[in-house]
Amino acid sequence: MKRLRKGDQVVVLSGRDKGRKGAIVQVLPSGHVVVEGLNLAKKHQRPNPQRNVTGGIMQKEAPIHVSNVALFNAGSGKGERVGLRTLEDGRKVRFFKKAGEVADV
């Protein structure tokens, strides 16, 4: 089980977008995540009329390493680190390390 999943609300901990929140769009196997609307990079796109692609300078979300994002805890209103725990009934769930409360319901 992964600590961060697609669709999770996260807070960026370092870099240009520090403190901003967004949803995870993609989790990459290299240990990076792509967050919606954050860490935008400019890409110079050459036009391709056969594929109906217009040229210009496009903005694209770049990956952020998982150590630089934290899962957003709605209870505390902050980003917190996440751990894994096995419950009495055998289910594996994520929990917030500082608060100790379960993130998955």
Describe this structure in words.
The protein is mainly beta and 105 residues long. It has a single domain (9-45, 56-96), classed as Roll (SH3 type barrels), CATH 2.30.30. Helices cover 0% and strands 45% of the residues. The protein contains no helices and 10 strands. It has strands spanning 9-12, 21-27, 32-35, 40-45, 56-61, 64-65, 69-73, 78-80, 82-86, 92-96. Strands 6-3-2-1-7-8 form a 6-stranded antiparallel beta sheet, with no helix packed on it. The chain has a two-stranded antiparallel sheet with strand order 4-5. It has a two-stranded antiparallel ribbon with strand order 9-10. Strand 9 and strand 10 form a beta hairpin. The mean pLDDT is 92.
Summarize the structure.
The protein has 105 residues and is mainly β. Helix content is 0%, strand content 45%. It has strands at 9-12, 21-27, 32-35, 40-45, 56-61, 64-65, 69-73, 78-80, 82-86, 92-96.
| Helix percentage range | under 10%
The major beta sheet can be summarized as: 6 strands, antiparallel
Helical stretch tally: 0
Query: Structural class, from helix and strand content?
Result: mainly beta
Distance between the termini: 15 Å
Radius of gyration: 17 Å
Q: Total strand count, please?
A: 10
What portion of residues belong to β-strands? Answer: 35-45%
**CATH topology value:** SH3 type barrels
CATH class: Mainly Beta
